[in-house]
Amino acid sequence: MGKRGEPLELRDAHFPGRAQIDAYGNGGFRFADMSHRGSLMCVPSGVYGWSPTCFEEITDEALDQILQEADGIEVLLIGCGDELKPFPEARKGPFREKGIMVDSMSTGAAVRTYNVMLGEDRAVAAVFIAVDYT
C-alpha cells in the first residue's frame, strides 16, 4: 500500500535524461545515483527498464523505441550479455534506412563504449542485457 492506504502505483522504470552507466553486474545497473535490476534501454528520451533477459529475446518489437527516436541516434550499441553475439545483418536494414549503425558486443564492452561516446556528446543509443557478474 502507498501513502494513507492508497494502492501502490507501479510504473515502468524510466529516467528522463541521458546518463552514464556507473556500474553493471549482479543482474542490474547503477546510473544517476539510482540502481535498476534487469536490462536497460538508453535512448535520447531517457533510460528505460527493458524486458529482454537474453540476446535471443531481442526482437524487432523490443528495438522499436530506437527506430521511433532515430532522429537523435547515429549509433546503436547492443550489449548481448556475457559474450559477443553478432546482430544478424538481415535485421540491420531498418536501422540503416534511418542512418543508424548497429554494433553488438558483450554488455561490459557496450557499457564502456556507451560511456565514452556519451562523454563525447555523440548521438548514441544502447540496449544492455543485464549480467550476473561484477
From TrEMBL:
InterPro entries membership: MTH938-like_sf, NDUFAF3/AAMDC
Gene3D superfamilies: MTH938-like (3.40.1230.10)
Membrane spanning residue stretches: none
PANTHER family for this protein: NADH DEHYDROGENASE [UBIQUINONE] 1 ALPHA SUBCOMPLEX ASSEMBLY FACTOR 3, NUCLEAR PROTEIN E3-3
The protein's name: Membrane protein
Organism: Pseudovibrio japonicus
